[in-house]
Structure prediction request, 154 residues.
Amino acid sequence: MELSKQYAAELEKRVGGQQRHGNWYFTLEQIKQLPGIIKSFDQIDDLAISPYHITENSIMEAYWCILSIKVVDEVQDKFDVLLSETGKRSLKGLEHHYIEQWDYTYYEILKGDVKGFIDSVSRYIRYMEKREPLLREEYDEPNQLDQGFYYEIW
Prediction:
């Protein structure tokens, strides 16, 4: 089993999670347990955490807020990677909120750097604590009682 799936299984065992639409999802409050789980495993590998707005009838991914951590032999400058991804030559060509978002959601971590990995996950969680209320304003549907943001680990 992939290490990220092992993290998710351990998180589900500790806090429950919710199975919806055939996958396991966790609230941000539950995701806060993840750094401790990673520390207890003392192993790292590529990780992604995708936020979804889920209602009784729909599921919508907030794809621009996906956490992506790549475990690598050599770390590239994250902003050089952003420029490469966008085809831009300078950060001046990008809006500030895109740069900020990239800074909180994209990481390259050296193999074996468990502390750096945990710090990246924790930083993403703090970022999403600020972003999630804004996302709810955008995504929440009137007259829907059972709705909210949930996160999938993969």
